[in-house]
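Continuing the batch. This is chain 6 of the set; chains 1 through 5 are on the previous pages. Same settings as before, nothing changed between runs. Recording input and output for traceability.
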Amino acid sequence: MKLKLNLKYMAMRLVSGWPESYTFEGTVTAGVAIAEGSVLAINGNVLERATATSNIHTIVGVAAETITTAATLIKYIPFVQGQIWDVDCTNDTATTMRYESMILTDSVTIDNTNTDVTGPTGIFFCLAVVGTAATRRLLGEFTRLQSTST
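Output for chain 6:
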């Protein structure tokens, strides 16, 4: 597998799979700013920043642009099987969170607290820990409803 290197900083970066230029556009509630690289979840018929309670039924992708509070639409990279993501994590450790299902801390951080999340909020499967102290990140894939039995 060949990984591409995306040098632009974002909380969640697509490094393998569908090209990041392949985006969808979805409706957001006006009045909410969203940063590029944030995980998005669907709530009713609009997109919002994902939270720790977002789950395999609600997450849809990662924001491909930053929007202000005046915006009503956002471009996002949809989650599909075969994608590998480089993501920010809560804890700076090289020894935990391999081969476990993890929950979000917030829309821009995966919670790597060394606990395997077996319910529907376990939305990230870690394949590797990368980086050095203070810049530790995770490589893995987001789990959607179609790829799990939960």
